[in-house]
Amino acid sequence: MMSCAEAISAYGLRAIGIGERLLPKHDIGLCEQVVLIGSGLIWNIYFAFFALLFGFFLATAIALARASERWWLRKPAGWFIFIFRGSPLFIQFFFAYELFVLLPKIGIDIPLGFTTITVETRWLTRAWLGALIVLLLNTSAYAAEIFHGALKAVPRGDIEAADAYGLSGWRRFRRIVWPTMLRLAWPSYTNEAIFLTHATTLVFFSSFPAWRQEGDALYYASYFAEKTFNPFVSYPIVAAYFVALTLTIIFLFGRINRRLNRHLPRTGRPRLRIRPRFLR
Amino acid sequence: MFSFCTDPSTLPDWQWWACYLTTGKHLAFYASFGTVLLLLALAAPAALALGLAGALAARSTNPLLAWPGRIYTAMVRGVPDIIFFLFVPLALDQLFEIIRHRIKCPDWEQPIWQGNDFVVCPAAKLPLSSAPQWVHEVYGFTLALIAFAIVFGAFAANTLRGAMDAVPKGQIEAAEAYGFSRGQIIRRILLPQMWIYALPGLGNLWQILIKATPLLFLLGVEDVVYWAKELGSSKTSAFAYPHPDWRLWYFLALLVWYLGLTKISEAVFARLDARVSRGIVTVKGGNGA
User: Fold this and answer.
1) What CATH number does residue B142 fall under?
2) For every residue of chain B, which 3-state class applies, written as one string?
3) Of A31, A109, A148, B104, which shows the fewest CB atoms inside 10 Å?
4) Residue A222: closest C-alpha in chain B
């Protein structure tokens, strides 16, 4: 049994490969469980943060394509949303992994002007890139559907007023349509962010291997449950971590919600509520 | 399956495929789609019943009912459901074994948790180590089913609670004015009217349930994912039907099957929604005529 300080220095950053190489096997104490599961949370936050960050822009683009009058933009966007929303994320992970494994093992040089970076296709079979891409596409499809709904709900009067002021094209979108769309979509989008974060726990339970046993919070929780034959300690720990993470997301998105609605009277602001939409 | 399948290596293409796709393992693969549908058919009503109980308990005026109901509806909001899927079967299995251990082996001396081990007497094991294979499979499936019912029951409780709150207050007040008891109000006013408000949420929930079924694989059930992995992995010439790694195609087939399933459900729920909305004034449907 380790002391808590020892556990923190040995396993605090274990999930990203820093610290003790071997996972605890015997005499597993509470501190080891709390610390190691907490270090696994780094992966959940990493996946959720980057998938949401990139997904936000991709979703906006797809929502615009979906609302476009040109069929060659509208149709592919509709199919993208249908495929990623209509099938289980779990199967998407398996399918993407097999696809990435079959890709030829090559490095692709991307010249950036001042320097050249080599992107290797074998990175795609690693969770940090491959699973991130799947999560990114998945959340983009869900968010695009939300944004599309909000886009169609932008009041016609706003657009007409923009036209009357001589705003058009990009400027009309940037100044009028987009802020209103975000404002309308934000409560649902908060929900999506929460459940995407929850969905990151699937990564290491689908086909993506946890390289050198560097996994996420649930990966370590199930490791402990397996080693100690006692699910009543490690699973409540990981559940508590996720409750804290969920509350953090609600707080951050609530701040953004306040900013989006700052021109409205306090009583007219839409409130954020978790309406569970759960697994995908 | 077919008489010409005795030596697959000599067969022309179409016969090879006919034989390959009807091997015993492939038939088990097709049957596993039935397992998924069976889970859906059993989990949906069980979850609905649990959800109804949870929603009614959460709305109860008796705190002994209200608190468990509220905790039950709240538990899925902050915690990923996958955690419940991993936790519930394991916890139930240990719970059952401890209870059986207490009953069947009262004079067992050793502690149940010995360091990192969980030891009950052999007679308390579930299923018994002497039980045939199908008992193990049914037991595993049942534990998975209970996990699905509990998790989706909590989701359904959220939806139904919202639907019950959406039933116009005037209806309840009118019933109270007529002297209906609480039970009568629930049975005659609340339950018949809440369905129209609950249906969109329940339809959404059904889609989510469909998309959660591949998680059976995590619970050790031989489901579609298990067989897709098993059949798709590359087979050397030691096998009757050698082929390279085909898992991509098997998972593609699963993807298409799930897309079809969700698409069909969507259409069914749209019709159902139109049906229950008849005669009810909504924003969307005008006077509903």
Assistant:
1) 1.10.3720.10
2) CCHHHHCHHHCCHHHHHHHHCCCHHHHHHHHHHHHHHHHHHHHHHHHHHHHHHHHHHHHCCCHHHHHHHHHHHHHHHHCCHHHHHHHHHHHHHHHHHHHHHHHHCCCCCCCCEECCEECCCHHHCCCCCCCCHHHHHHHHHHHHHHHHHHHHHHHHHHHHHHHHHHCCHHHHHHHHHCCCCHHHHHHHHHHHHHHHHHHHHHHHHHHHHHHHHHHHHHHCCCCHHHHHHHHHCCECCCCCCCECCCHHHHHHHHHHHHHHHHHHHHHHHHHHHHHHCCCCCECCCECCC
3) A109
4) B86
Question: Can you give the pLDDT at residue B239?
Answer: 80
pLDDT (0 to 100) of residue B110: 74
Q: What pLDDT does residue B287 have?
A: 41
Nearest CB to A94 within list B204, B218, B225: B225
CB contact under 8 A, B259 and A87: yes
The verdict on a CB contact (< 8 Å) between A88 and B212 is: yes
Q: What per-residue confidence (pLDDT) applies to B261?
A: 93
Give B97→chain A minimum CA distance, Å: 13
Which residue ranges of chain B lie beneath pLDDT 70? 1, 115-116, 279-289
Of A90, A232, A239, the CB nearest to B214: A90
Mean local confidence (pLDDT), A254-273: 80
More confident: A49 or B135: A49
Q: Which of B251, B269, B283 to mutate to test the interface with A (most CBs of A within 10 A)?
A: B251
Superfamily of domain A53-215: MetI-like (1.10.3720.10)
Average pLDDT, chain A: 87
- Domain-embedded: residue B87: yes
How far B65 CA lies from chain A's nearest CA (Å)? Answer: 22
In a domain, B3, yes or no: no
Does B20 map to a domain? no
- Note the pLDDT of residue A75: 94
Q: How many domains does chain B have?
A: 1
Q: What is the pLDDT of residue B288?
A: 37
**Chain A environment of B255 (Cβ under 8 Å):** 83, 87, 91-92, 95
- Which A residues in the span 79-138 are in contact with B, Cβ-Cβ below 8 Å? 82-83, 86-92, 94-95, 98-99, 101-102
| Complex prediction ipTM | 0.86
Q: Which domain holds residue B45?
A: 34-224
Percent of chain B past pLDDT 70, that is, above it, reads 94
Please give the pLDDT value at position A249: 93
